[in-house]
Amino acid sequence: MLARIRMIPSWQLTLGVALLALGFLVAAQLASETPRVRYTTQERSPLIETATGLQTQQDELKARILELRAGIGQLEQAGQGSASLVGLLNDQLQEARIAAGLIPLTGSGIVLQLEDSLRPVGDGASQADYLVTALDIRTAVEQLWLAGAEAIAVNGERVTPSTAIIDIGSSVLVNSAYLAPPFRITALGPDDLYTRLSSSPGFVDLVRARADTYGIRLSFAEPEHVDIPAFAGTITLRYARPLPSGSPEPGASPGG
């Protein structure tokens, strides 16, 4: 027996030891892989669920972002519409303020001046006929409006829809100001305002009745531009009130 062992070549012994060692290594590797595979299989499902949940949240956030962007776009469009509406209302308010005389204006126009007559009072005539009256001023203002004037002032008093021009003793009351001659009527209007006024039958009648007959002095000036001041009084109406919506027009019959 001992003789047979001795007869085994050394290389076979070496190979046998190597194979035996390899077998131990393979067995150890397989033993270590079994817990690893078991661990990976046990943990895979929760990780997948977590990843799926995070993906769902991300998709929801993306959808919310798109929704908010759409809302912002709608608000921006609505804001543009509101800005246009506000601009339109501001323009209408500006026009109303101009019509009410609350804004000073400048532009082309004329200046008409009325002064008392210097003629001696004729026999049987009245001294008042030779003086400029509120009626003369009102007539001139009316004719200027008809000729196309857009704004008028008398001695610096802006003429508005509520302006009263009346005689008070030896002076003329315009708005709340007592004015004395000469009376300067400043009118802002088209470039041909003087031509329109001078060809107006009503103004021609005024000149004939007052200037030619009694010598009331009328003079004109056409400066490069005229300045119309703003109305300085109050626009509060004490006795007027807005007509309720849906109410019949004044003078209309109940049956239509």
Order of H and E elements: HHEEHEEEEEEHHEE
What is the strand tally?
10
Strand order of the largest sheet: 4-3-8-2-9
Beta-strand percentage range: 15-25%
CATH homologous superfamily (4th level) name of the largest domain: Protein of unknown function DUF881
Extract low-pLDDT stretches: none
Radius of gyration: 52 Å
Q: Which fold name is given in CATH as the topology of the largest domain? A: Alpha-Beta Plaits
Would you identify the CATH architecture of the largest domain?
2-Layer Sandwich
Distance between the termini: 144 Å
Secondary structural class: alpha+beta
The pLDDT mean sits at: 79
CATH class of the largest domain: Alpha Beta
Tally of discrete structural domains: 2
Query: Major sheet: size, sense and barrel closure?
Result: 5 strands, antiparallel
Number of helices: 5
What would you call the shape? rod-shaped
